[in-house]
Design goal:
The structure is a homodimer. Chain A has ten helices and eight strands. The first copy, chain A, is α/β, with parallel strands linked by helices. Chain A has a single domain, classed as Alpha/Beta hydrolase fold, catalytic domain (Rossmann fold), CATH 3.40.50.1820. Strand 8 of chain A pairs antiparallel with strand 8 of chain B. Chains A, B: InterPro entries: AB_hydrolase, AB_hydrolase_1, AB_hydrolase_fold.
Chain lengths: ~280, ~280
């Protein structure tokens, strides 16, 4: 297969060993000095990235997505705190021999992005944070209850409930996004185990209750923050708080959108993110 | 001169009569079904538009900028309220025989944009609002004092004080923007008269004290809101309030930026605005 034919739907899953963990990852796109590495949401795996977004970004740079320790097709145990997840991710990146990355962190991945910026500034070039919040965000105290309510629904409804608003237009865009997420038919990843689910739930809930220890003001990197108007899980307001704390952030809110804002406006997100990374 | 050679620096000033007012305007750019009409800030005239922004937008659509009644090179009296300014602007647009426009409203122009969306929905396609606020924004109670403090400074410092933050980087971008605003050397407009200054000051201050009468929730158009992180005049938070009230708005904040956020990031603004208008 030629490089140009490798895209989000066809990129093979590779594995690399680091610190006793076998990390599953996919790597494709236009070769670039600095690859963009994607960090996934609660229970999310390689297959939860929107192909439109991956291919739109891969047109201008190399993309690496991976399953963090204990998630999806990666081995090991999922830690119950964001700092340990960050350290696992850094081990993975170093195992690839990469010394500089751009970061795309979605939800839980956006928490890891904050640790990466503060604790590994030399490894990071630019950061994109979608649907996330700073430490101490009160809305996250209710994370287990929100997930509990979601789990009572049918599988498609869980996705729509978490990531989209209740408007018909948002739901329709959600159904289209879900189709895209399932348009890759072969070499798919395993779902998150109970261990991963429980550990990530603890980490996310704790992110909301813990006293902020990350000094966001010290993150020197350009940051692009994306959020929906109605993210109940993270509380949309908390992205504005994050923006005010970061010294060099651009913040964009999308209309009638919930936690999955970039699933709802993939082309706008690609345009904005490519501009942000290229300039 | 060929159409392609007409740009922000060379576009001649035309005049059209409507309702007893001779409106000064410039019109150029790629012919398009819907022109983008620019509405200026307090005391601003045809020459206060950033040439980088005008030419960046004109590459993809027709641009019309004008001096509203009593301002710059237009005759007549400047009204002391935003609604009457809106009516004057509509008279100008109708005199040109135009039935549908996109709106770019900066500061005071962003107030007019809100009236246009609510009272003239059929005339409007999309709206861009930069550095503005909804009615009732308390920060505007101090508008005369802020302008008073600015007037005590040297001319260049007035511009930097109003539109940029106190950081060296923001100030440097401000000096570059000021150079661009003076790079058109011929056929420049007259400065605002005392009558225009006093009437606009009253209108802007009243915008902050008046009870909201515009029903923002009824504005059906796609709106793009742009604001800086540190706009003291409008209070940056008020753009988030505006975003929450409007049913279909995208909101972007730029870092380390004050009231003149789009002067500071003209290329990012052009990329985002062209995407917004094209899609």
């Amino acid at each position: 297969m030629k490089t140009s034919e490798i895209n989000a739907l066809t990129a093979p899953t590779h594995y690399i060993e680091s610190n006793g963990v076998s990390f599953a990852y996919r790597r494709f796109g236009k070769p670039s000095a600095i690859p963009l590495v994607g960090f996934q949401h609660f229970t999310g795996t390689l297959d939860n990235w929107d192909p439109i977004i991956l291919d739109g970004l891969a047109a201008e740079r190399e993309i690496i997505i991976f399953d963090n320790a204990g998630v999806g097709n990666s081995s090991g145990e999922t830690p119950d705190n964001v700092l340990a997840m960050t350290n696992d991710a850094v081990n993975f990146i170093k195992a690839l021999g990469i010394t500089k990355i751009d970061v795309l962190g979605f939800s839980l991945g956006g928490f890891i992005a904050q640790y990466l910026g503060e604790q590994h500034p030399d490894l990071i070039n630019k950061i994109i944070i979608v649907g996330a919040a700073p430490q101490g965000t009160k809305a996250l105290h209710n994370f287990p209850q929100l997930i509990g309510r979601a789990q009572e629904k049918e599988p498609m409804e869980i996705f729509l409930y978490i990531f989209f608003t209740s408007s018909q237009e948002s739901r329709n865009k959600g159904k289209a996004a879900l189709q895209r997420l399932y348009s890759r038919t072969e070499d798919r990843t395993k779902a998150a185990t109970d261990q991963a689910v429980m550990a990530q739930m603890k980490a996310i809930t704790h992110w909301g209750t813990e006293k902020p220890s990350i000094s966001l003001k010290k993150i020197p990197h350009p940051v692009l923050i994306i959020q929906g108007s109605n993210d109940e899980m993270m509380d949309s307001d908390s992205s504005y708080t994050l923006f005010k704390e970061l010294p060099n952030a651009v913040l964009t809110y999308y209309p009638d959108a919930a936690h999955g804002s970039f699933y709802q406006y993939p082309e706008m997100f690609v345009n904005q993110t490519n501009y942000f990374l290229n300039n």
